[in-house]
Amino acid sequence: MTDGGDLDADGEANGVIVDPAGLADGDPSSASSSSGALADTGQNQITILQIGLVLLIMRTLYSLRLRLKTKV
User: What is the pLDDT of residues 14-35, one digit of tens each?
Assistant: First the structure.
């Protein structure tokens, strides 16, 4: 980013860079959660594993059912 460049919101080379997105604050105490933990995205690994296991069991039962039907 350069003063007066495409990313400078005021478009003038005047010693001031205006960033419409704002600057990052390097001070972790200003964050809303200063625990250092990642944000809770709502995805629970246990739930995802449980759903995967249920789908695997359903697929296995379906395959067994098809094999039994073709043998009879």
Answer: 988 887 775 555 555 555 545 5
Arithmetic mean of pLDDT, 31-50: 70
Specify the number of domains making up the chain: 1
Nearest to 16 by CA among 25, 8, 24: 8
Q: Is the dihedral of CA 28, 29, 31, 32 positive or negative?
A: positive
Kindly report the three-state secondary structure assignment for every residue of the chain: CCCCCCCCCCCCCCCCCCCCCCCCCCCHHHCCCCCCCCCCCCCCHHHHHHHHHHHHHHHHHHHHHHHHHHHC
Whole-angstrom Cα distance, residue 48 to residue 42?
11
Whether 10 is in a domain gets the answer no
Structural domain includes residue 62: yes
